[in-house]
Prior knowledge:
Shape: elongated
Amino acid sequence: QISDLAAKGEADFAIATEALHLYNDLVMLPCYHWNRSIIVNRDHPLSKKTSITIEDLAEYNLVTYVFGFTGRSSLDQAFSSAGIDPKIVFTATDADVIKTYVRLGVGVGVIASMAIDDKLDSDLVKIDASHLFEYSTTKIGFRKGSFLRSYMYEFIERFAPHLTKSVVEKAMMLKNNDEVEKMFKGLTLPVK
């Protein structure tokens, strides 16, 4: 839906992490990397572990994102590489919904680390999972051949400071997103 809206000009930008192959009609620029954390209730057995393995995680029911949304494929790849089928019992597109189900004891949550607020979620234990799952990259895209107004360049740069007007204009001149990927190869993106 996001891709279609941006490709038709009904939305100025598409901001996405997964299913980037659906964005062929857009110029997709890398913004930042992010990873996941495991969240559990304070009385959960995983809350006491200092280091969690994929095998540890496989022992529990999981609550995470819907496939193809917000980095789910990285989770699936990690389990597949270990030859383990995860016990995913509930999926949602919203981290707050996932946190609610964790609080209800439905399962162990696997969500974007940036979706956890230390104050609002102080009842949950956050466990870094960056050693288990590859990071994901969030990109911002706009329709090929678009005329970007100054406020649009400003929005892009505020969202991703390395995407200055001159960098965006250079990327716009490239033929396809493979060339855009090459342009940014070697760039160290911020991690959120």
